[in-house]
Every structure is written in structure tokens, then in C-alpha cells.
Amino acid sequence: xxxxxxxxxxxxxxxxxxxxxxxxxxxxxxAAIVSSxxxxxxxxxxxxxxxxxxxxxIRRIRAGGLNLNPVIRTVQERPAMAILDGDNGMxxxxxxxxxxxAIAKARVAGVAWVGSRxxxxxxxxxxxxxxxxxxxxxxxxxxxxxxxxxxxxxxxxMLLSTNPIAAAIPAGVEAPVVLDxxxxxxxxxxxKAKAARGEQMPEGWMIDREGKPLTDPRRAAEGLLLPIGxxxxxxxxxxxxxxxxxLNGAAMGKDVIDFNADDTSVTxxxxxxxxxxxxxxxxxxxxxxxxxxxxxxxxxxxxMPNVDRIFFPGEQSQARRGDYTRDGIxxxxxxxxxxxxxxxxxxxxxxxxxxxx
Length: 357
What we know:
With 357 residues, this protein is an alpha+beta fold.
């Protein structure tokens, strides 16, 4: 085996993840949901949130930090809102339930907000923002990150996380517009992915506590993530955290548990999803056609020198979905070794890797 990435089919990766969770005692139906979402993260190129997280999840499960049999329940509800208690279950399960509830409520009320507490890490934000798309709805997602890596503007104490936000807006003939971003220059999952691939980070992602650039992802624990747009990113991280965490009775600020370092404590992660039914605002197809026109105008814009194409948010992820579905999902060599070792430890069949960059 070389240092070049291997390839694995989506179904192979999904089934391997599901088998790992089932071996640890997760119910079959829950393992199917979580594994599909994790493999989908890799399929769209969100490799900091896909199978790379499996060993970490397994570690937390074995340490008792995750509840494999959660009773996800509604603790507050009105016609256009609800708050779910995730009972310390996998965040993928909690947010799937939240998205389903938001979609059902938005069909009646036009818009619906469903927040969560006592949840956990759920993977890339766009997975949940995209769920309303199939119902001709717009989806917005907010979350408190699972470790604080961001100080207040001008400070040194890490009191905020990457606090991601995602939005998915349907189009007609075009792919949907899907924005998925951390409120930091780079999500911490991207830092972990760089470390897994043995790559350096570009300057501008992190600084050390003296304000100097930090580019070695293996030293990430020593550094601070930088907010997007300077003080504006700090403000956005604060607002997202208040909406996804504080509003739902979830952890925020100094109460956030660093789940990278602590495998036993309950994280009480907060997330929220907003579904907006296009039909409540007018003709659905007319809206989608207008989105297509806007996308075409953006793409036809005069380009700066050396720019071959203007992309809209989500277009490149959509292209990766197609490429990886056809050619297989790339798995770095060191991650492949980890997964093979994991398969032996759990006594499950490893995925059918094949060579190919």
C-alpha cells in the first residue's frame, strides 16, 4: 500500500460504519441512520466529519460518554417550534428527528424552528440544512461546536467554538444553493483532517497564544482558531451560540465540554434547524426559476484574471458527490490503516478498499 489515498464505495463505507456501531450495541435502525449520514459527509467532501470521526465516537461510547439507547423527547412545543431533549444520544439521531419535526410543522405553519439540547456532535451542518430541500423548503441549521477554540475578540480565553451555520435553498435546473460554514476561518474538523493526511495548515487558520501563525495541525491544542472577518466573525459566533445553545438550554461558553479531550462527560450540545416552506410565500416553481436566473447571472459575471469559473455555494460539494459516487470516496493511507485496525479490534469486515488517488 502506498501513501496515496485509497478509494471505497459509499455503500461499503456506510455498511462498515453501521457494523461498527452495531457491534458496540447501537440498535440497528439507529446505526443505519448514523452510518448513512457519516458516509454522506465523506461523499460530499466533508472529510473532517465523516468516517474520520468513527474512532472518536467509539472511544466515547466505550467510555460511557454517549447513550446508545436514547429516548429523544419533546420538552417544549408550540405550533411553529419545539425543543428536543436528545438524552445524550448521537447528534445525528437528534438532528434527524429535529429536521423531520421542523419539516412537518412548516407544512402547517409555513416556518418552523426546532432546537435541541442534550445532543452530541452531528457531523457537517449542511446535512441537516439540506433535509428540507426534498420537501420544497429552505433549511437553516445552527450549532454550538463541541469544543471551544475561539477566544472573544482581543482575548485569550477560549470561550466560543466554531459554531457553524448552514443554509440550503432549492433551485430549479441548477443544484441547490448550500452554504456550510464555521464562524472561524476553518472548522476544527478541517484541522483534524489536515493532521490525518500529514499536511500543514495554511497561515490564517490558527495562531498561537503569542499571536504568531500556527501551521502544524498536530499542535492545534496549543493554538486558537481565528474568526472569519475579524471581530465580525467573533460576533457571529456569539449569536449562533446564543441561538443554538443558550436558547435551547444547552451548553454555551465556559460550559462547553471539549469532546476531543473528555470522553466521559455529557456534552449537552445545542443545535437548531429552521424550515421554511416555499409554498407559504408563493409559487414554488417560480421561486426556483428565479434562483436559477440569479445563479446564471453570477456564473456569467466578468471574471478576474486567471479565474476559470465562478462557483456558487454548494456547487463544488455537489460535483464531489457525483465524482465520489462514480469513482469511490478517497481515504488517506493513515486513515485506512486506522480503519483496518478497527475492523480487527471489533471483529467486523473491513471495507473493500481499492487503490487510486
